[in-house]
Amino acid sequence: MAKTKISEYSATAGSNTDINSINLAEGMAPSLVNNAIRQLMAQLKDFQVGTAGDNLTVGGNLAVTGTSAFTGAISAVITGGSINNTAIGGTTPAAGAFTTLSSSNATITGGSITGITDLAVADGGTGASTAAAALNNLLPSQTSNANKYLQTDGTNAAWDAVSLSTADITGVLAVANGGTATSTPSLVQGTNVTITGTWPNQTISAVGTGFGDVIGPASATANNLAAFDGTTGKIIKQANTVTVAQGGTGISSGTSGGILAYTASGTLASSGVLAQFGIVLGGGAGAVPTSTAVGTATHVLTSNGSGVAPTFQALPASGPSTIELFYFANA
User: Fold this and answer.
1) How does DSSP assign 234-276, residue by residue?
2) Residue 7 half-sphere exposure toward CB, CA atoms < 13 A
3) Of the candidates 293, 291, 285, which has an alpha carbon nearest to the alpha carbon of residue 259?
4) What is the rounded distance in angstroms from the CA atom of residue 132 to the CA atom of residue 110?
5) Which helix (H) or strand (E) holds 22?
6) What DSSP line would sit under 278-328, residue for residue?
């Protein structure tokens, strides 16, 4: 790998055989020496200004005599020493004090702040470390205000009880708002409907036929028909098929390419698939129709006698060589 920055150098001198692909092997061309030195100087400059992105580890002491600027996050574990003559890690305060830092505007862009006292409400905080306590600190006092609602006077919020009296309510509640739009509704009786009593204590009764209780299954398939279950007229069930007597077929599916046929009085069934271009043959009582095979070109359908299905056959060799057609005019 071409060594393009200092972090790619090897601590083993013999392993540093190039610098950014410039050959450093024994017997290198003299012209490469100048190129190698120039490349080394460029890489040192990249390291110095930070464009190489290399990390720096200091094995000894680091002494900074000038002003330092840190633009990235700083993470450091300090286990000893002192800051401004105050011991680090001591269990009791030492002589001296930290320098007080003050600012009218501070921005914290990383890290976290822990171990501080809850910021008071007066200082823009909540004065609490939990959501419930913070909410209680921000709301008006809840003492002796159970079952009250938060209400505003347009400037400040306070707890207030909801109370209604006739003085608070005037007029008639409109139908659009859930009312009747009248203080004395007039209910009108209709066919089989009787209304007794006076407003607002009235009773509506319905009489007549067709009020039977209907009980059905707990669930059903959408679009399936309902059928009575028993003879009470009050219980229904899901009808998977419509019977022949009801104008249906009594079956839920059939064979693609088949036809419906009665196999008994009031019973329909689907035949098997009928051969394309075949001749449909009656199946007789209790059976569905079938079909012949397509047959061979120029063959004719020939009867094979009672109880045997006809088949396509070639004309016999001893038969007539032509077929004569005779037309008879009606007299």
Assistant:
1) SBEEEESS--TTTTS-S-S---TT--EEEEETTEEEE--PPPT
2) 11
3) 291
4) 27
5) strand 22-23
6) PPEE---TT---EE-----TT-EEE---TTS--EEEPPPTTS-SS------
89 and 95 in contact (C-beta within 8 Å)?
no
10-residue mean pLDDT series, the chain (331 residues): 84 86 85 88 88 86 84 72 66 55 73 81 88 90 89 89 76 82 80 83 78 79 84 84 78 82 84 83 83 82 81 72 55 47
Dihedral over Cα of 168, 174, 180, 184: its sign: positive
| Helix, coil or strand: residue 14 | helix
Q: HSE, CB side, 13 Å, CA atoms: give it for residue 202.
A: 14
What's the CA gap between 104 and 215, in Å, rounded? Answer: 78
The C-alpha atoms of residue 219 and residue 23 are separated, in whole angstroms, by: 84
Q: What is the pLDDT of residue 330?
A: 58
DSSP one-letter string for 27-61: T--HHHHHHHHHHHHHHHHHHHHTTT------SS-
**Tell me, what's the pLDDT at 189?**
83
pLDDT for residue 177: 83
Residue at token pair 């009928």 = 274
DSSP string, 81-144: -EETTEESS-SS--SS-PPPP--SS----SS---SPPPPPGGGTS-S-SSHHHHHHHHSPP-TT
Residue 246 pLDDT: 76
CA distance 93 to 82: 12
Q: What backbone torsions phi and psi does residue 54 show, to the nearest 5 degrees?
A: -80, 150
- State whether residue 8 is helix, strand or coil: helix
DSSP bridge pairs for 290? 281
What pLDDT does residue 331 have? 47
What is the predicted pLDDT for the residue at 99? 55
- Residue 43: name the closest of 60, 66, 21, 65 by CA: 21
* Bridge partner list, 159: 150
